[in-house]
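Quick one, T. Sequence first:
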Amino acid sequence: MEINIIEESKNKMIFEIKGESHTLANLLKKELWNDKNVTAAGYHIKHPLIGTPKMVIETSGTTPINALEDAINRLKKKNKDFAGVFKRKVK
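Structure tokens:
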């Protein structure tokens, strides 16, 4: 995975996630929308099989990088919680 920042300002960031697909981009987009400081979050892939997701985050009250870091941390916690429940059920 490689991240290339295309545009960055105080309240907006556009970046590409090379080596990823809709799976990660959609997960991040949905989690970003859970942040009250995120005013816009979305992504676009030019070609569904060979394209690179290009994400856009717009914020107010925080920076796009902070919003992205918070979303990633929430997703980590959800994954950890899920893994714990799964392990208990599979035993």
